[in-house]
User: Fold these one by one.
Assistant:
Number 1:
Amino acid sequence: MFLENYCQITDDKISFTRQQASDFAKQIADDFNPLHDIQAKRFCVPGDLLFSLILERAGLHQEMSFKFSGMVTDATKLTIPTKITTAASIVDDNQKEYLNMSVSGDYTKSSKTITALTRAYVEFSGHTFPHILVELMKECQVMINPTRPMIMYESMSIHLDNLDFEEVTLKLSSTTLDIDGKRGNACLSFDLVSKGQVIGNGKKFMLLSGLRDYCQETIDNIVTQYNDTKAQYLTQR
């Protein structure tokens, strides 16, 4: 279980310290979203960590879709299913839902297959900003609020032609950004590739809030600050 350092399991309840969630974001996903900083006022556990735990506990299905409905904090204790037949939810002790998922097709609990897909997806997902979203915002001539940058993981889906692989990479295939006032819905489509062959595809949806007119200088400052934060972290490790 390579995720054991990034969560706490007590009586089948899973929780996260701020340090564990932040370490997963930075060390596994290479994601320096300020929402995952241990001192963040609106701190939340990375959605990719929940996704990874679901696959590790319940297995990988050929068809999987996930929709996030709440922000998990360091005070949240979750019940994560160990088997999914068609649909399931991640809830806390008060039955508040944070994520719901649906699955179909064949499934596997092969640790090599699941670890390969988990690491490939999380690496791709963690590089959404600035690598992909900045270019997408430039194309649409909008940008996030520089003083309160909010980019939220909304949902994702994966289709696999088969589960017979132990290595896989994700390659971006297309992007779209639908704008509605000060909100934007980004869709990142990707292919799953193993040994040079496309074996599946997927989509990741993200919500951008506080949109305003694009300014290259402001975007450059946001990216510089992001990269400086990353460099400082790597220097201190």
Note: The chain has a mean pLDDT of 93.
Number 2:
Amino acid sequence: MTTLARAEQTHGTSGVAIYQLVAAVLTARHSGGGTVVDVGCGRGELYQYIKGRFGSYAGTDVLRYDGFPDEGAFHLTDLDSGRVALPDAVADCVVAVETIEHLENPRAFARELVRLVKPGGWVVVTTPNQLSLLSLLTLVVQGEFNGFRERPGLYPAHITALLEIDLRRIFRECGLADVAVEYTKSGRVPGISRHWPRWASRLFPRRLSDNVLVVGRRPVSNGDRT
């Protein structure tokens, strides 16, 4: 399946809890202003949650979905090809929401995100949480992670399942500092369509969250300061 076909299966959108978590993480770490680049932006729905934090918003994806915000700058990119059509160190923050699991080479993708961010800037990646109770039970019973099952049509749109430790290692390999992992605190109860109570998800975020986020900062070198 091509990158374009995988992107079309997603309809260019993610969950509200994911966008809210990304916005909270950026608010806690970025003082405001500057540029944010949304890699694998889909419809650009993240913009509504962060537009007050940045001076400009740019999105890039393999196709431009209907609904992409008029205020944003869109750049067409096949993310499996390797390089986003933007210059080095163009962004104060770079975000990839539910994108890395669709791509063939997550490490190359992470290096590209780091290339785009300025020294001192932040990189944020979200992906399905393979350590959730739902995903682990699906793995035990059906032999595959919940977000990557072929029968409900998640595979081959989702092709790369990453654990929390994989995300941490990739960020370290890319030279990012202050790496942290957070969870959406929103997850489905196995076997039914209901979500866990909010209090339970807050007590056990790793096990009761459908999605995980990793964030890291590109260090500022002596050469960057001069």
Note: DSSP finds eight helices and seven strands in the chain.
Number 3:
Amino acid sequence: MLDVAVIEDPATAEVTLDPVRMRLLAELAEPGSATTLAAKVGLPRQKVNYHLRLLEQHGLVELAEERRRGNMTERVMRATAASYVISPVALSAVQPDPARAPDRLSARWLLAVAARLVRDVGNLITGASKAGKRVATFAVDGEVRFASAADRAAFAEELATTVAGLVAKYHDESAAGGRAHRVVVAVHPSIPEE
């Protein structure tokens, strides 16, 4: 089971957004059959089977094992990932584009940049999985509490200057065999976790 799977297909995204299927995916972190799932979610086994088949057709669940139960075979399924992310690629023509309105201070632009990050890293994960390789990435995640808006603005300016200095120091346009990497740094108000 993957830790995170990226959904790029619109039809697959649509399948995952159904509340019943979403619940089944969550339950299938541990393998289960239509019978055991029906008891957990309070639906008839036939209805659960219908949803499982749709999830299986879209690669969101897979067969874990088959068990003989009298004169029938019980299919035990499991989710293909612990969690799923829907890539902006699934939105195709209406996916956010940071090039439309580049504004470092705009929350909407930050969201477009984040969507591009999800899209790009999702594509990298998909390609790397097919090639049996890992993706070389790095991320920093932290929290800072500012005493004032002026401190926040000063922090943002110093951060931008520092990152620009690092980019200038290490960027080598003429490096034979070099590979470009995107750098994304974001600052936004924290949302308390519930």
Note: The longest helix spans residues 107-131.
Number 4:
Amino acid sequence: MSFLIRVQLPDTPGTLGAVATALGTIGADILSVDVVERGGGVAIDDMVVELPSGRLPDAVITAAESVEGVEVDAVRPYAGVLDTHRELELVEQIADRPASGLAVLVEGVPRIIRAGWAIVVSVSAGGVQRLASSSAAPEVAITHLPWLPLERATILDAEDTWVPETWQELGTELAATPLGKPDKALLVGRPGGPMFRAAEVARLAHLAGIVAVVLDG
């Protein structure tokens, strides 16, 4: 079974190799590594690892944190696409199918930033509208979005009063970015974490900006 682990580690030569060696001692096979954020002498990496049958994910945490200075932020099952740099491919797909562009967007975004689901929402005098939802998006009704209109991409308070109770129970981390207009937004959820990093939100904003231009074009 594959797991996505997010690790904080010293941004020094050899540290990632030491983590890989430690994971190898428990039979974990590293399938991909994606640098999420880097700065201040610390790197945040997402690693997709495959564990042998019968091996518990707790073993991953123990092995990784056996390397000095390494902390595991989160571990969760992962069955997504391993190519983490698919923005251009997604934009091309949307450009080829503009009539269903929003549907293509919400299915592609979770694979790119390793989230659980994505929804495009808008707000008007008639209330909140759900314009598109990924296949894994929760179906619970959203009746109030106090953060719309939205001027810039942001991490949302996952415990705010507007957040459905079922999302809170799952520990869903949330981020959103405007999609062309402040009253339309791309809302992304990551049940069980880990929390969204600033670099991920910037990446989301950049992608949404390009897609908005393509769909308006």
Note: The longest strand covers residues 29-39.
